[in-house]
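Hi V.,

Quick status before I head out on leave. The structure for the redesign project is tokenized and pasted below; the design run finished overnight.
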């Protein structure tokens, strides 16, 4: 009696890399853009650059924060889906006789990158939320 293992569903590398780096990149962009907009909007006295007042800077910072939270959340969801799918497949294959091959190494790497993406995206999702909280609590430039 021979056993034929199910063919694993391939995960594109771009999906894994987005899941791994989507949260940190979203948070970094939030920090750079929101800091610059707030610093410019709250500049004391006549500004050398025209066009962005305090209210507009606040609105831009809010939009950037919501976008960063959405980016980190999408990276988290994507990584979680890949991690669960690769975990189920590994459990299915361990129930049958497995031979160690290069395919197993690739599947292990996919599972590891997905899990690392879950951790990173989760941490940076919280960071993006906490970075955006002052917009709801602090009014004006003080």
């Amino acid at each position: 009696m021979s056993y034929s293992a199910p063919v694993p569903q391939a995960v594109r590398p771009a999906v894994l890399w987005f899941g791994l780096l989507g949260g940190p990149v979203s948070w970094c962009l939030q920090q750079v853009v929101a800091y610059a907009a707030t610093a410019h909007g709250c500049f004391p006295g006549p500004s050398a650059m025209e066009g962005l007042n305090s209210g507009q800077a606040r609105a831009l910072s809010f939009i950037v924060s919501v976008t960063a939270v959405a980016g980190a959340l999408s990276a988290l969801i994507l990584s979680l889906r890949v991690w669960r799918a690769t975990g189920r497949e590994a459990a299915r294959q361990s129930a049958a006789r497995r031979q160690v091959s290069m395919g197993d190494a690739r599947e292990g790497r996919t599972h590891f990158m997905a899990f690392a993406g879950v951790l990173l995206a989760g941490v940076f999702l919280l960071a993006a939320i906490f970075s955006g909280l002052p917009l709801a609590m602090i009014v004006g430039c003080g």
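Above is the designed sequence. The chain has three helices and no strands.

G. will cover questions while I'm gone.

Best,
W.
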